[in-house]
Batch of 3 targets.
Target 1
Amino acid sequence: MRAVKHRTPTGRRHRVAELLRERLALILLHKCADPRLKELTLTEVEMSPDLKQAKVFYVARETVDPDQVSLALDKALGFIKAEVAREHILRLMPEFIFLPDTGLDRAAQLERLFEAVKAGPEPEGHSNT
């Protein structure tokens, strides 16, 4: 009986995802003309097992309208693909799916909840006003 090899996050998928995240961040920052795209931080790239699809998670600054960022990414998608292809990183070009990263928002919400629980209920008769 053969031992089953478990895939680890340090495998090819993870290396390709990290490389793509770095390259995409540089493309958005230095080569895209749209100023809305310079306000993004790419937090993670998840590659499909066959490397044909890349989910790119991003966070936009609070001052930027999320709908405008989504429109800007859709508009620049062809240019982004062309730039990635020009760098000859991969043999096959993956399909890019840009998604807002909600993980940081959830973490901030949890942090506020923990702080509220830690502070405890305010005694009656005492107020900060």
Target 2
Amino acid sequence: MDLAQVGATWLHLLATVAMIGYYAILGLVVLPAIRGLVPGPALGESIAAIERRATPLIIGSLAIFLATGVFLMTTDPRYGGVGNVSGSTWATLFLVKHVVVLAMVGVGVYVDALVARRFAAAEAPDDPAAVRLLVLSCGVMTLLGAVVLFLTAAAQGS
């Protein structure tokens, strides 16, 4: 048993669970609950506070995810180098997985820059459409995360 591989895989999975879990819980539990309980401007302040509190978790998860992912990929004997997808199903699935991960990063930046910051700036403190957009964005992140997990499982089984 290679402890570096085990440790990197464990950290990679923890980071994945933390990020996907955050967006799933935010979109499916937290936002729907506070939308009905917190009035007007306090809603925007609450959403901004949640996002500020979660930002270190998300950035930390991304950093761990990136570092361990590069290590795990480059130490896998099936890895043929950047852009080499002709050699195996594994390589093709990992390329698709990384495209989905990039889409997740794009949606995450959108959530932070264009949605959550609107709440912090009080541009949409009680705008139901802005809350729905944030819930939708969280749902997209959760779905993309599930696709990444599926592609990872499929690649490991190939």
Target 3
Amino acid sequence: MFQDGLKEKRLEIMKFLLDANIPYSAKEVFSGHKVVHVRDLGLEQATDEKIISWAEKNQAALVSRDFDFANILNFPSAKYYGIIILRLPHFYIAREIKRVLNSFLKKVDMQEIHGSTIIVEEGRYRVRK
């Protein structure tokens, strides 16, 4: 434990795939990790199934604002490396989205992401296994 009460987080480099509904500039928030945007892969118009399939094959956690990925019947958490859904107001611009992502990444233990669906909201997040 650190003196300020925060848990010591294990340093782990992860791979993240940002969906088309995540600003391209959000890549900068993931410093120290491998991050790719669907635009880098030519998947910006791809179906949800193609996007999650790429993430699965490449052991990447998907970051999206698309709540279809939160449906654990269609996308069971245990099958994927991790699914992170941002539940934010539709009017949030890139700066606000990056702020929320940055705050989340500072709080989360990377081990929580593996095999989980995580709903990220302003100031908090929920983990579903």
